[in-house]
Amino acid sequence: SKQAQLMEVLKKEVRAMLIAAKAGLTPEQLEEQYVAMVCKPLPLRDLGFQSTLELVTQMPEVVRISSKNGTLILKAIADDSTKGIAKLVANQKVKTRKASKKAATKANPTFPTKNSKNPQSFQTLSARTPVLPATVKAELQDLLSSSPLLLMDLDKAFLRRFGRAFQYRQYGFLSMSEVLRSVSDSIVVEQTKAGSLLVLRKYLASTIEHEEEPQASAAEMPPLEPICETESFYQAAHVMDSEPSVQTQAVDLGVHINQVRCWKVEGKRCNLIPALLPGRVSGSGFEQCSSTPEIPPDAVQDRSLCSLPPLKRRCLVGVIVEFIVSPSQFYIHICSTEASYKLQDLMFEMRHVYSHKVASDKYIMPESAVRPGQLCCVMVSKWWYRVIIHRVINDQEVEVFYADYGHLQIVQKSWLRFLKWHYLKLPAQAIPCSLAWVKPVEGTWSSAAILLFKHLCCFKELVGIVDEYVDGVLYLFLCDTSTKEDVYFHSVLSDMGYADVCGENVPSQEFEELNPSALYVQPSGKQGNAEVVEPDLGLQQESRDADN
């Protein structure tokens, strides 16, 4: 029956999730993990269950239920096909100091040859604590930007602000103190009589405070309506002598315009450019006003983002996997402090600018601009993201590609805005990737293989070993160094019977069908406004012998 088939699939999924959680999960955490990984809630009603606990009690061969300090803990019971993975997870370390020593002792790295199934003796990087996604870190900083917050009040404040609980365990953290250590570059913990106080570092808080001052430039403060003879309109007109250029067009947030042209209209002093006025100036003032809104001169219309510079072959680089379709199609972020700060700064600035209704309304896109290939931005949960329109669904909806994160999503047209030229500088941060040297045993990746790959990658910093680029897709090996023994993902997929190690890179079928990055993002070097964002030198390492 359909219920029996659904139950069998669910057992495999639940076992995989619990195996990946060394300390086990509570029923609530299992629900959250399932939604995060499968993108839908547990099918309790479809199977006739009222609760998650009732469901797992019907899986005695899959789930072991225990109690710790009055809290129910669910742990996996491994079967023959998952004992190897369970052993790897059981060997996972809580502390990673030994791993750094181990990495330091590996002095002579070698790279895999086509005759070797498992690349051994890579010079690995020291194991690191898990990493918060950039959006979540930005949310924490935003939460603390107005005032410090007691640690005991963090959960309630986060839920009230963003409409969801702060579930740090789903990002791979074991405790809140581990989370705070990972964001110590921007958040300080101070001990007070009331308890631990979370404070945003002064430099960041002062930056946000400076941005909040009512001194936005004219570019961010356009007129509310085309009423020509108002002082607010005169002060709101944007100064622009020529067609916008990357170097001169965009005005940074909070910077005053020092050079303006001045005219007198009916005895009033105003800062404006005649070409931008909806009416013309005569001896008696404005003769006519147009009610047709114009596209702002600093709105991106016919430009594209560029990609990050290609990584050198056989280099090691710290990566975080941001979005996964399968082992043959996923997107990564490079673990670079510089890149991380630039993306966070971009998100903060975009939120500040577009959150002002006057400025946001100025960049509303007319219907003629809502077309495939158009670079713009979209608001989701109060944050703004750079996107490219992939296709128009209907009169209200479009499908967009998130250039900095790698996924497609259907959004409302009304959520879109023109992207300012200033936000075109940072290269697209998502790198399209495929796991090197593997292919699915059955022609396509099974749901179990994809789920296992997601668990291996889940919210942790990994070591990527660059193999080559094929048609703009980066083929690399992935290695988890947070265990006693380095875990190479292509070997795990092969050992589990999900993949064949073929010693060469088979073109990704998924990317051949659709590669939004190749469609909409220009290769590095073809965009004059691109800023090079290199990985940290401590992460990118070349082989001592490139021909070894």
From TrEMBL:
Gene: Tdrd5
InterPro entries, sorted: LOTUS-like (IPR041966), OST-HTH/LOTUS_dom (IPR025605), SNase_OB-fold_sf (IPR035437), Tudor (IPR002999), Tudor_domain_containing (IPR050621)
Keywords: Cytoplasm, Developmental protein, Differentiation, Repeat, Spermatogenesis
Pfam families from the UniProt entry: OST-HTH, TUDOR
Family matches, as PANTHER family: TUDOR DOMAIN CONTAINING PROTEIN, TUDOR DOMAIN-CONTAINING PROTEIN 5
Species lineage: Eukaryota, Metazoa, Chordata, Craniata, Vertebrata
Keyword Oxidoreductase set for record: no
Region: Disordered, residue numbers: 99-121, 526-548
Sequence similarity: Belongs to the TDRD5 family.
Name of the protein this chain belongs to: Tudor domain-containing protein 5
Occurrences of domain Tudor (ranges): 369-426
